Amino acid sequence: MTKPENESSTLVNSKENSPFEADKGSPDYEKILLDHPVYQYFNDLYKEHSKTNNHSSLIEENIWPTLTGETLIGRGKINFRSNSFYLIDDKFLSEYKDIDQLEKNEKNYSYTFFHLGSKLSGHQKIIHGGLLATILDEITCRLAFQNFHSKKGVTANLNINYKQPCYVDSFVLIKCETTKKTGRKCFVKGSVFKLDLNDGNLQLPTTDYIESKANLLTECECLVIEPKWVHELQNKQT
């Protein structure tokens, strides 16, 4: 399996962590995505960024939520979740200064791929909005944590706008971007984009096409805070 170099695995449904055994006839969503030029393109973006920003390649996930890591994993649920590609400039990972807004050439964002199955529906054949909210909450927080010295925090506010239906049995790309940081407060924008790997119009480079208004399904703004009692948070299971 290909993954960002030196990054701790975030494949919550990897063979080692999966609570179920896949049917022999089930699609291999991991192979389908990782072999596709779209994933390889984002993997190359990550590798290129890491050449001059070594801190991004050293990021390790330090929370293992039971809800998205166990309960919602399985056939027809979260069928696959990729490693997160963190493209964060070293200065944000070492200085922890306030951010008024990102300059055009600055990077402080992440990409994560999911395949969402039919058992996650609310309306028929449409992914439940609460599921998308849960995933966005978790992934935006993971990015915000990287901007705190403690690498920990909690959600204070989450505002979500649903733009288009997110259909079951589909891949999605979630992009999170830090927009502002003031002291113990970090604001992160999260976006869920439709990812049709069979789209004949999909061409490289893909960022402008995938991150277009036509593909935007859901977006949010998450306020994450580093509480004064942050030392009491136990993120990693022992």
UniProtKB/TrEMBL annotation:
Comp. bias regions, Polar residues: 7-17
Stored Gene3D superfamilies: Hotdog Thioesterase (3.10.129.10)
Stretches assigned to the Thioesterase domain: 125-196
Annotated region described as Disordered, given as residue ranges: 1-26
One Pfam family, short name: 4HBT
Protein name (database record): Thioesterase domain-containing protein
Biological source species: Hyphopichia burtonii NRRL Y-1933
Source lineage: Eukaryota, Fungi, Dikarya, Ascomycota, Saccharomycotina
